[in-house]
User: Fold these one by one.
Assistant:
Number 1:
Amino acid sequence: MEIIERIRQFVEDECRKSTSKYGFGPYDSHFVPMVKYAKNLAVEMGADVEIVEIAGWLHDIGSIMVGREDHHVTGAEIASKKLKELGYPEDRIALVSDCILHHRGSQKMESETLEEQIIIEADSISCFDNIVGIFRAALVNEKKNEEEARISVLNKMTNKWNQLRFEKSKERIRPKYEAVRILLER
Ligand SMILES: [Fe+2]
């Protein structure tokens, strides 16, 4: 349990730093709900809960510390280094690192483990709780106009929906995805 708390604290501290690429906002709006969903799925599906929780906290650390581009690669490197420092076993570091490397559905890779798929699903599910943040990313960070943002958010949410493989996740998110389509499709 201690390792999870130390990793959570590390992520919180990095989000608080002035060097955080996205400020502190993502800690509450993305990391916290994402880890909650990931943990629930891991428990329900009999996955390795510790690996899933650690990977959940660290999956976007590359985005925070380095930037969005290739954040699955930078994040896996940062995570491995940090976990090594904390004396976490090498074989388990590799499992966490793979979850982070494979968490971007847009860069699909094969033969995911259950833990890897849970990270992808929890990441997608948590986006549906943060549609304001997704709009902000399009309008503010990517500097799109309103029409471009509408299309971009609709596409993003559709991609997130398409990444879901577990019936449990689909059931939970279906009403929200249908609402997104009603509101954003023309
Ligand atoms: Fe994420």
Number 2:
Amino acid sequence: MIKITALGTNGWFDTQTGSTTCMMVQTDSYTLILDAGYGIAKIKQLVDFSKPAYLFLSHLHLDHVIGLHTLDYFGFEHPLTLVAPLGGKKDLLDLLRPPFTTNWERIPYKVNILEAEELDSFGFPFGVKALPLVHVVPDTGYRFEIEGKSIVYLLDTGYCENAVTLAKDADFVITESGFLPGEIDEGWPHMNPESAARLAVAANAKQMLLIHFGAALYDTIAKRQQAVDTGRKIYPNLIMGLDNMEFIL
Ligand SMILES: [Zn+2]
Ligand SMILES: [Zn+2]
């Protein structure tokens, strides 16, 4: 059984609509954590720390890594594998030290830091493929093959061919709606609900979950609902993400 939990569905900053970006995928044998916005603090109550855990980062914007400041709050009993985005390991190491946060080498459990280039050689207990996406900084999308299901994580990105490639025929695609319906900014690429829906259609995805609703634009849940309703005219299996939602695959 695979259980997916939305821990943080806001983009940019935390508000009453949710925490910043974090998703969790749990199986009987291990836990995947996708991005480390402040939503990651919720794993304290939800994760079985006796199982191995793997944390994948899409990119290093603070709304996706700020929760790394809470790593020493957790009690992982195995080494935590932390995957930096493509080309991002050096910058990640620059962040994981004083005066920004605790030195990662002094966290009370071992942390192994990899870069997404090194995935093939690591030997994960699941399949994983990484491709660069289109954002204002280097950004990595991931496709996971877990117990016969494909789960794809595409944060933050504009519409691009690599996103379609990763999402091809996927069982569950998690992507973003940083922008409102109809909104585009070529200089700061994000998805809006229509472009996310078009991506799902192009990729023939089975379901798509929208998260990372830009906090300033989506100040109410009603605005999320309106956006998802707009996207559903293009792709009916679009799901509105909310913090603490759970999905069983
Ligand atoms: Zn973001
Ligand atoms: Zn970003």
